[in-house]
Write a structure and sequence with these properties.
Structural class: alpha/beta
GO molecular function, one term: phosphoglucomutase activity
CATH class of the largest domain: Alpha Beta
Enzyme class: isomerase
Radius of gyration: 23 Å
Largest sheet: 7 strands, mixed
Helix content: 25-40%
EC number: 5.4.2.2
CATH topology of the largest domain: Alpha-D-Glucose-1,6-Bisphosphate, Chain A, domain 3
Shape: globular
Keywords: Isomerase, Magnesium, Metal-binding, Phosphoprotein
Distance between the termini: 50 Å
Cofactor: Mg(2+)
Strand order of the largest sheet: 2-6-5-3-4-9-8
Strand content: 25-35%
Number of domains: 3
CATH superfamily of the largest domain: Alpha-D-Glucose-1,6-Bisphosphate, subunit A, domain 3
Bound molecules: 6-O-phosphono-alpha-D-glucopyranose, zinc ion
Number of strands: 27
């Protein structure tokens, strides 16, 4: 066991979901080691603890795992449970933490960010409930990165990540497990696999785009091998270190391969995709893209059709920028709907306290109390279970939902890599004027209310401030401005646009057209183009 002297490295502040940096930064001298030691120290030390360790397989995943294991051993950890080959999807890691009663987990991923030597890497700590560390824990970890003087690391040979079973690393046990088995068993508990298998048997067709990322093996094992979907249902199913050179973010822009398939004349019945680490999902029917906000609402309205949720839902939650579609379903069901800041960690207390069963975010995350992460394949399987029970098409399910509850037209505009000073200037300027906006008219839209979102956690009482600037318009429109917390370069401004429509004759319109007036008003009232020097978003989802 060796004690290596080090000094604090700037820029180790965890963001929305752990620490994300350029891979080269993570591979720099002591960078990973400092952060891992700070993680152990900031969470009460590793002595006697059991951790789950795994990642999305991106470049540097395996090397980083070897370092983490040697450091866990040198810090006195009892046991590390590691996915074979260093692979664990984020939801599978969450499940393993819960199932094995581990003290926590170290998950290596930069989620949907590209991977490779010139792309991104990330590391995050999840607690014993299986969920991302809370704000207070990440603050503790960050504080340790700022006063670190040394780290512990064992000098040993590499662990064989490919060999299932137990190995020893000093006094620590390393247990290499099948990354898919426990997760697949959990899915089988929640969903009616027989009904879904019968659906496929009856000729139902689907495409699942794993985007060269971690869900490839999970989706192949569950959809093709267990549920009998045709071979080839899973596309881009072999994980690669740089995700095939792509951007493993399941949205219509980056999952274009799948969108092309689903909008072709011979499109299959159902399409889905997941991201780098398997926690996000995209759902698309034949010629019918479903926004994440609508998907959450649909799942909330029909979850009772799946065995795991047949008793109904305790409540639901959505992040603030997510559309109000699920609120309308919750109201009809007579259950609570919580509005939280962006970031899955904010759902943790609500799930732990049994206040909500289902939750989701506009950023393509949906999940339930079965784990403490969002879960891409879970969402796909719940959709499949609902499709099997209702025998309806995706488009018909959506039309039925909009007819019942109204339609929340929704889109998100991302202005990426904006100069940080300019982005801050825009937010500061708008924040200063928020109180005076009500009653003012911008591009023909009258502001009804405006505020900066803050959150008081109803379970642990913690307070989160400055979570986005919101402007509501007369007639049910809303614009939200938020700075992304997951980027690695510059600032990304997210502009979330929403318009509620309840007129039955106006439920099938083009979202871009419906939302154009709200966009124009948002740009006018924020002065975004002038202050940032950008006149159009880079990505529209
Ligand atoms: C991660 C988190 C999500 C969050 C998303 C968007 O995926 O797990 O909970 O919604 O990032 O974050 P951003 O700060 O980039 O909008
Ligand atoms: Zn992810």
């Amino acid at each position: 066991m060796t004690l290596i002297e080090t000094t604090p490295i700037a820029g180790q502040k965890p963001g929305t979901s752990g620490l994300r940096k350029r891979t080269a930064v993570f591979m720099g001298p002591h960078f990973l080691e400092n952060y891992v030691q700070a993680t152990f120290d900031g969470t009460g030390g590793a002595a006697g603890k059991t951790y789950v360790v795994g990642g999305d397989g991106r470049y540097f995943n395996d090397r980083a795992i070897q370092v983490i294991l040697r450091m866990a051993a040198a810090n006195g950890a009892l046991r590390c449970i590691v996915g074979q080959g260093g692979i664990l999807s984020t939801p599978a890691a969450s499940n393993l933490i819960r199932k094995t009663g581990a003290d926590g987990g170290l998950i290596l991923s930069a989620s949907h960010n590209p991977g490779g030597p010139d792309a991104d890497f990330g590391l995050k700590f999840n607690g014993a409930n299986g969920g991302p560390a809370s704000e207070s824990v990440t603050a503790e970890i960050y504080a340790r990165t700022q006063d670190i003087t040394a780290y512990h690391i064992a000098e040993t040979q590499d662990v064989d990540l490919g060999a299932l079973g137990q190995q020893r690393l000093g006094d620590m046990v390393v247990e290499i497990v099948d990354p898919v088995a426990d997760y697949a068993a959990l899915m089988e508990d929640l969903f009616d696999f027989n009904a879904i298998a019968a659906l496929f048997q009856g000729g139902f067709t689907m495409r699942f785009d794993a985007m060269h990322a971690v869900t490839g093996p999970y989706a192949t094992a569950i959809l093709e091998d267990r549920l009998g979907a045709a071979k080839g249902t899973v596309m881009n199913g072999t994980p690669s270190e740089d995700f095939g050179g792509g951007h493993p973010d399941p949205n219509p822009i980056w999952a274009k391969d799948l969108m092309d398939v689903m909008y072709a004349d011979d499109a299959p019945d159902f399409g889905a995709a997941s991201d780098g680490d398997g926690d996000r999902n995209m759902i698309v029917g034949r010629g019918a893209y479903v926004t994440p906000s609508d998907s959450l609402a649909l799942l909330a309205s029909k979850a009772h059709l799946a065995p795991g949720y047949q008793g109904g839902l305790a409540g639901v939650a959505r992040s603030m920028p997510t559309s109000g579609a699920v609120d309308r379903v919750a109201e009809a069901l007579g259950i609570s709907c919580y509005e939280t800041p962006t970031g899955w960690k904010f759902f943790g207390t609500l799930l732990d306290a049994g206040k909500v069963t289902l939750c989701g975010e506009e950023s393509a995350g949906t999940g339930s109390d079965h784990v403490r992460e969002k879960d891409g394949l879970w969402a796909v399987l719940l959709w499949l279970n609902i499709l099997a029970e209702t025998k309806m098409s995706v488009a018909d399910l959506m039309a039925e939902m909009w007819g019942t509850y109204g339609r929340c037209y929704y889109t998100r505009h991302d202005y990426e890599d904006v100069e940080a000073d300019r982005a801050n200037a825009m937010f500061d300027g708008l924040r200063a004027r928020l109180g005076d906006l009500a009653g003012e008219v911008f591009a023909g839209q009258t502001v009804a209310w405006a505020d900066e979102f803050a959150y008081d956690d109803p379970v642990d009482g913690s307070h989160a401030s400055a979570q986005g600037l919101r402007v509501g318009f007369e007639g049910g429109g809303r614009a939200v401005f938020r700075l992304s917390g997951t980027g690695t370069v510059g600032a990304t401004i997210r502009l979330y646009l929403e318009q509620l429509e309840t007129n039955a004759a106006r439920l099938g319109l083009d979202p871009a057209e419906v939302l154009a007036p709200i966009n124009a008003a948002a740009l006018a009232l924020s002065d975004l183009p002038a202050v940032t020097g950008r006149d159009a978003p880079n990505v529209i989802t």
